């Protein structure tokens, strides 16, 4: 029987070989209830019990302390609110306890830390798995290495090693002490059968008591049975042996005085404000009552125990009331946590389809998670259900969030393909010199780039920089060209300004041919200067206005003046020797001739509507003037076409003569 109880010692004190915490913590491990044997704010509320229940609880706690006096330290090491702590802080607290406290005094603390760490890590691991799957991963391939988890396992393994070593060393001593105490009990039992002088027997009895007090701790599983057996035989010795009444009464009186002190102290404890402190002291009083003080006279036994028991009962009732108050707090915490779960569910059901808004929702859910952990404990009976509802709410949000980002990833990949196509286009055009065609195209692809959405972040900067460099390369070249052209145009403007001043200062000599020749020289000079800046093109009008005034003084017709100006262009075309330019000019002049003819026909048709009107009619006069103006223009355009034809014929003749010249030179 004692061997079986001794085996139970190993199970009770934790000297087992359970495996360490693994990455995949099971639900059964999570649901392990953490039993608290002393009163504290973190202990689960207990069901209302009887006076015998609380005495049994005290006896069990004293039995645990009896194994090693350092066990008592567990009452003084605070059990923190592990539920509200992060995984990193839980590891830190576990490390502090294992390093600084007696291993036999921190079992409940370690169990509480492990319980909360496993819950938090499992939830964290599931979150990482969902992220992995949402990015296209296969669940079977999921692996996650957590530094925090590895640190926890290392510290917890260190704790288990210290704990197992402690109980291994303790076990042999406890067994020897148990055997010694059982031997003392046997000797105590044999005293009633020894026929010797009563004083000698009493002296032997006192020696056995002294040996008992020094016999050392026994396994907690045997503690109460051994002490009950011992006290039973002590009472038998006092009650049934014919000892010297004076010696017996002296012992009884001393024991009664000591037990009265304990009772009075226990009764005073019922008014102690600090309930935890009061209950721990009551536990110590029960230990002293059992271990240090012997029996009292029969007439006082029931009465003195009744008083002590009643004080214990009052303390028990105070505890039950305290637990009821804790229940109210836990119920309030439950309401808070259910509200948090509802908020997370609402966010999860309305996940935003906008990245910025979704990031805000992620921050809101994270804040609600922190608020959930800090909300405090809930009633033990709904703890697992509340935790499961919380995890499912967070998981639901994560699923919808991940689905959004999975679709966003596809969309961003399509955007990346579009931008890559534009990048290739920009690179292919960046060195082109077809400015008129490429410039609007480059502007178009820049505009299109802006309409394309985001691309995956890891490509974003790289592809943008490459596109920007290609565009900048082209437009830097274009601007350099424009700057050069702008400089040339400004120089042309200055030269044309000087030409105008010279033309303005020119005075007619009276020799018409000479003056026309001089004016033609101004025109030739003017044409050599080329384009001026766009915002200064009005200088051309000023030049023509001065020319018109001079031609008017020389009585040069508009057509003649136009042909004089056109002669300069003919010379430019001849120098350029560009068939395409001559063809374009011919096409332009013919279009103008057709337009003039069309206008003349239309005006002449209109004039027929005024057949009955007087020729002096202002309307008729205006139509006639328009017809004449268009006829003059038509004659001018025809004259220009003639000059162009002459130019083309001359060029053709030169082209025909060129081979003959080459052939004759070869013959020579």
TrEMBL record:
<dbReference type="InterPro" id="IPR007139">
    <property type="entry name" value="DUF349"/>
</dbReference>
<feature type="coiled-coil region">
    <location>
        <begin position="586"/>
        <end position="664"/>
    </location>
</feature>
<feature type="region of interest" description="Disordered">
    <location>
        <begin position="1"/>
        <end position="72"/>
    </location>
</feature>
<feature type="compositionally biased region" description="Basic and acidic residues">
    <location>
        <begin position="1"/>
        <end position="11"/>
    </location>
</feature>
<dbReference type="Pfam" id="PF03993">
    <property type="entry name" value="DUF349"/>
</dbReference>
<feature type="compositionally biased region" description="Basic and acidic residues">
    <location>
        <begin position="27"/>
        <end position="38"/>
    </location>
</feature>
<feature type="compositionally biased region" description="Acidic residues">
    <location>
        <begin position="50"/>
        <end position="69"/>
    </location>
</feature>
<protein>
    <submittedName>
        <fullName>DUF349 domain-containing protein</fullName>
    </submittedName>
</protein>
<keyword id="KW-0175">Coiled coil</keyword>
């Amino acid at each position: 029987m004692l061997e079986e109880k001794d085996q139970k010692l190993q199970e009770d004190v934790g000297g087992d070989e359970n495996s360490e915490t693994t990455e995949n913590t099971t639900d059964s491990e999570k649901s392990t209830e953490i039993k608290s044997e002393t009163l504290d704010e973190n202990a689960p509320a207990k069901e209302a019990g009887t006076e015998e229940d609380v005495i049994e609880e005290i006896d069990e706690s004293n039995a645990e302390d009896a194994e090693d006096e350092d066990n008592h330290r567990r009452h003084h090491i605070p059990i923190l609110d592990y539920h509200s702590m992060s995984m990193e802080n839980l590891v830190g607290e576990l490390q502090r306890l294992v390093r600084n406290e007696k291993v036999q005094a921190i079992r409940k603390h370690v169990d509480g830390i492990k319980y909360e760490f496993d819950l938090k890590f499992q939830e964290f691991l599931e979150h990482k798995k969902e992220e992995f799957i949402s990015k296209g991963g296969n669940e079977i391939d999921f692996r996650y290495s957590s530094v925090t988890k590895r640190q926890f396992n290392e510290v917890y393994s260190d704790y288990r090693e210290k704990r197992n070593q402690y109980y291994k060393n303790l076990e042999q001593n406890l067994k020897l002490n148990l055997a010694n105490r059982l031997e003392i009990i046997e000797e105590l039992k044999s005293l009633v059968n020894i026929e010797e002088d009563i004083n000698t027997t009493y002296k032997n009895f006192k020696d056995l008591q002294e040996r008992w007090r020094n016999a050392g701790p026994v396994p907690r599983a045997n503690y109460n049975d051994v002490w009950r057996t011992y006290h039973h035989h002590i009472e038998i010795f006092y009650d049934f042996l014919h000892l010297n009444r004076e010696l017996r009464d002296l012992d009884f009186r001393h024991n009664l005085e000591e037990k009265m002190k304990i009772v009075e102290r226990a009764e005073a404890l019922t008014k102690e404000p600090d309930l935890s402190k009061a209950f721990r002291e009551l536990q110590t009083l029960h230990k002293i009552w059992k271990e240090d003080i012997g029996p009292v006279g029969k007439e006082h036994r029931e009465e003195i125990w009744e008083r002590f028991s009643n004080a214990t009962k009052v303390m028990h009732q105070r505890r039950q009331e305290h637990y009821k108050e804790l229940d109210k707090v836990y119920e309030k915490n439950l309401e808070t946590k259910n509200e948090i779960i509802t908020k997370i569910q609402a966010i999860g059901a309305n996940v935003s389809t906008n990245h910025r808004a979704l990031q805000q929702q992620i921050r809101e859910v994270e804040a609600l998670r922190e608020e959930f952990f800090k909300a405090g404990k809930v009633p033990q009976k709904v703890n697992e259900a509340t935790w499961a509802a919380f995890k499912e709410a967070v998981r639901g949000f994560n699923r919808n969030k991940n689905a959004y980002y999975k679709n966003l990833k596809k969309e961003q990949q399509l955007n990346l393909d579009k931008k890559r196509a534009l990048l290739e286009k920009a690179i292919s055009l960046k060195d082109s010199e077809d400015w008129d065609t490429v410039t609007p195209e480059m502007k178009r692809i820049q505009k299109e780039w802006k309409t394309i959405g985001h691309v995956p972040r890891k490509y974003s900067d790289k592809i943008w920089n490459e596109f920007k460099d290609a565009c900048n390369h082209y437009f830097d070249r274009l601007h350099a060209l424009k700057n050069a052209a702008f400089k040339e145009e400004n120089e042309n403007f200055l030269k044309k300004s000087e030409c105008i001043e010279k033309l303005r200062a020119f005075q007619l000599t009276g020799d018409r041919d000479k003056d026309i020749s001089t004016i033609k020289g101004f025109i030739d000079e003017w044409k050599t200067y080329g384009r001026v800046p766009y915002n200064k093109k009005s200088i051309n009008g000023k030049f023509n206005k001065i020319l018109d005034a001079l031609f008017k003084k020389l009585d040069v017709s508009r057509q003649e003046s136009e042909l004089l100006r056109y002669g300069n262009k003919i010379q430019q075309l001849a120098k350029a020797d560009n068939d395409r330019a001559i063809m374009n000019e011919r096409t332009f002049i013919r279009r103008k001739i057709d337009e003039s003819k069309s206008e003349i026909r239309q005006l002449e048709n209109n004039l027929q509507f005024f057949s009955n009107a007087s020729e002096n009619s202002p309307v008729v006069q205006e139509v006639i003037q328009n017809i004449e103006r268009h006829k003059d223009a038509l004659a001018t355009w025809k004259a220009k076409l003639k000059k162009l034809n002459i130019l083309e014929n001359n060029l053709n003749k030169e082209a025909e003569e060129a081979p003959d010249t080459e052939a004759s030179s070869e013959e020579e």
